[in-house]
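pipeline: protein-struct stage 2 | run 1193 | Gamma interferon inducible lysosomal thiol reductase
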Amino acid sequence: MIRLSLSLLSLFGAAAAAYQPLLVQSEPQVIFKDDVKVPVTLGVMSRCPDALLCESVFDHVLKRVANKVDLSLTFIGTPNASEPNFGVTCMHGPEECAGNVQELCVMKYAPAEHFWEFVQCQNYQGREKIGLPETALQCANSAKIDWEGSGAGTCTGLDGSGKAAEGVQLLQDSVKATRELGIQKSCTIMINGKQVCIHDGTWKQCENGHSVHDFVRQINEEYRKLNSETDGDDD
Ligand SMILES: *[C@@H]1O[C@H](CO)[C@@H](O)[C@H](O)[C@H]1NC(C)=O
């Protein structure tokens, strides 16, 4: 047995090391009928390194609890009437504003899993490509988003510019909503309305941990709370 465990460990090597917290968790996944999903909100800026890191961590989180979560992005920026295209100043420049608009439009019009694939695709291109029209079009294609038919294209600008009226309005609304949530740093993680963690250079204010395992556990806890009232009540 010992020999087997050791050879398994060496077989899986780096993967086992990286995913160790996941391997030891064996909790059964209870899904309720007509369940309430746990709102998870990431306060981000599309070209921010901290945002890319959080979104990569949550890619792993979603692999465990995708069907329990309602994930959304909310964007950090400064309302600014002097900004010609967006009416918002984005810390990493107008390309970031465009990237934010692209992600907001896809979030609004594409199915959740396609939206997430779109964000991961943008991030995978590298920060300096996020927000470029060709990146948006390419990622819409690879995430199997019907650019013209779904509404995402019209919202963003069919050319991918991020400058169409609807998308710009979504950006301005998102920036306002972010402020109302009290979010100032990218990336800020909120689970079921509570700020649970920030990554700003390093992890900060993460009382209940900041590993994939920690976020999965917190989501499972909130899911149980949100759905316990009806547990066993209806036929
Ligand atoms: C508002 O936008 C203008 C035009 O881009 C810029 O020069 C100015 O610095 C911005 N103000 C703030 C507070 O970001």
